[in-house]
């Protein structure tokens, strides 16, 4: 089954557009992997939920490049996750209600 993003409909209510923008981009901040230097945009939605938007092809990450699965099925590599968790532990990446 393939999923497609819902189209933006002309005349969408302003609050709906604001919600969409908030969900997709507000609160994202650049985070660089301390291992390979790959930069992604990250937002912590909760202690257990992290949104990651890749800005570069995943094959620039050595861990992704070595995996046999298509990178689109994987959320992140262990070293990038450690970089994100380190920022959270240092209080440099905010976790709502956490």
From TrEMBL:
<protein>
    <recommendedName>
        <fullName>Ferredoxin</fullName>
    </recommendedName>
</protein>
């Amino acid at each position: 089954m393939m999923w497609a993003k819902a189209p933006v409909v002309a005349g969408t209510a302003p609050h709906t557009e604001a919600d969409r923008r908030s969900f997709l981009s507000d609160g994202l901040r650049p985070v660089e992997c301390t291992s390979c230097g790959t930069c992604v945009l990250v937002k912590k939605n909760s202690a257990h939920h992290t949104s990651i938007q890749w800005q570069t092809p995943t094959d620039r990450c050595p861990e992704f490049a070595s995996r046999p699965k298509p990178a689109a099925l994987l959320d992140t590599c262990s070293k990038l996750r450690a970089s994100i968790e380190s920022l959270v532990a240092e209080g440099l990446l905010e976790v709502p209600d956490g």
